[in-house]
Amino acid sequence: MKRTVLKGIVASSLLAVSVVALAEPTCTDAPESDWMSKEAMQQQIADMGYKVKEFKTTDGGCYEIYGWDDQERRVEIYFNPVDGSIVEQEVD
């Protein structure tokens, strides 16, 4: 009985990790030496009209922001750090 429960817990944990990994896009496999600097990317994002609450680098090779667009809608956006293009975005 204990083994069955333990196997179920392990399987559920692995599934949860897989789902989280799928939720984040892969933006580039280019080396970080080819990326725009964080400062340059943040300036480009501001020039696009976004207000940034949080800026981070993801495991998928993206720059990611949480913030607001020029219409004050909440956004989560993944940017390609090489060219600054939007890879994926969610607007609330």
Automatic annotation (TrEMBL):
Name under which the protein is recorded: PepSY domain-containing protein
Signal peptide range: 1-23
Pfam families xrefs: PepSY_2
Annotated organism of origin: Halomonas ventosae
PepSY domain mapped to chain residues: 9-90
UniProt superkingdom: Bacteria
Keywords: Signal
